[in-house]
Write a structure and sequence with these properties.
single chain, about 290 residues, mainly alpha, Alpha-lytic protease prodomain-like, Alpha-Beta Plaits, 3-stranded mixed β-sheet, 8 helices, 3 strands, about 10% strand, elongated
């Protein structure tokens, strides 16, 4: 069973580093963006503001999700990760909608940014900072899988790509090509919105108790069928618990089998299935036939 205390500490550190990095980037992006009238950079700064909120939600959600099971919450508090991930996704969609409106308005009115080497410098600083945060968060997520960390990973990765296009729009302004700045702002908005919808869908599915994937279900069937005395696997029901699943299996056994033997077989099957990476707990029900 995963060390939840270790996961909590690692995710907490990732959230704090994310907040610190995004606050720094928000200040320099917003300042230079408004001074140089760059819609792409302004959009980028709003994206950093959304990232601060995402890191804060990661910090709070992780703190709640790390609380162990108790009498009132027998399966723990793992779903808190998905509730706070949904908050992140909603904020991303709202920010993206506002930025899309501003960028389209800028494009129609043919607003022109004022080129500055500070814009170029901010882009490079952002790309380096976000690339480091992405690699760090990715390494933590590999060790402690979490939808909150995955949401932050996507934010950091997206920022690297987004800021690269912002850099291109800034360089093109030297050639008096100003329309690309507004186009990049629109592209950033759509990208943020798409990422938000993706995170929202994943969180919604878990909160609505989506079933285990077909690949894992087939693995469970293979394990069950490896027991020669199991005559039939009548049902497999699952429900998410944090980033894992609680699985209920109903098996058919020979009605003449002793109670001790049938329960022993069920216990062994539970242990075998629970060894799978994404299984939190397995409960086997026996039906004589």
């Amino acid at each position: 069973m995963e060390n939840y205390e270790e996961k909590f500490v690692a995710t907490k550190k990732a959230g704090i580093l994310g907040m610190a990095g995004n606050v720094f980037l928000l200040v320099i992006k917003a300042s230079i963006g408004f001074i140089c009238n760059s819609q792409a950079m302004i959009a980028d700064s709003f994206n950093s503001a959304g990232d601060i909120f995402a890191s804060l939600m990661t910090f709070i959600g992780n703190r709640i999700a790390s609380v162990p099971n108790d009498d009132d919450h027998n399966l723990g508090h793992g779903k808190a990760e998905y509730i706070f991930s949904m908050f992140i996704s909603i904020a991303m969609i709202l920010v993206a909608t506002k930025l899309l409106f501003n960028s389209i308005t800028s494009l129609i009115s043919n607003e022109q940014l004022s080129f500055s080497w500070f814009l170029v410098l901010v882009c490079f600083v952002t790309i380096i900072t976000k690339l480091w945060l992405y690699l760090y968060t990715s390494s933590v997520n590999k060790k402690h899988p979490s939808i909150l960390l995955q949401a932050n990973m996507k934010d950091h990765r997206n920022d690297c790509i987004i800021t690269t296009f912002t850099l291109i729009s800034v360089i093109l302004s030297l050639l008096n090509i100003y329309w690309f700045d507004g186009v990049v702002g629109i592209g950033i908005s759509i990208w943020i919105c798409y990422t938000g919808i993706t995170i929202f869908t994943e969180s919604y599915n878990v909160l609505m108790d989506i079933s285990i994937d077909d690949k894992t279900k087939n693995l469970i069937l293979e394990i069950a069928h490896s027991y020669k005395k199991i005559q039939d696997v009548k049902d497999i029901v699952s429900t998410p618990v944090g980033d894992k699943y609680l699985v209920f299996i109903t098996i058919g056994l020979d009605g003449n089998m002793s109670t001790f033997e049938s329960h022993s077989l069920a216990d062994n099957l539970e242990k075998s299935v629970t060894k799978l990476d994404n299984i939190y707990k397995t409960v086997v029900h026996v039906e004589p036939q």
